[in-house]
Amino acid sequence: MANVRRFLSVLLVLAPITVMIAAVVIYRVASSALSPLSTMVRRAERITAERLNERLPVHDPSDDLGQAVRVFNELLQRLEDSFTQLKRFTSDASHELRTPLASLRSIGEVSLQKNHSAAEYREVVASMLEEVRRLTHLVDSLLTIARADGGQTPVHLSVFSCIDLIREVTDLVGILAEEKQQTIRVSGGAELTIRADRGILRRAILNLVDNAIKYSPSGSEIVIEVQQLSERVTEIAISDRGPGIPAAEQTLVFDRFYRTDEGRSRESGGAGLGLSIAKWAVEIHGGSIGVVPGSAGGSCFYVRLPVEDERRVSE
Question: What domain range is 288 assigned to?
Answer without folding.
Answer: 158-314
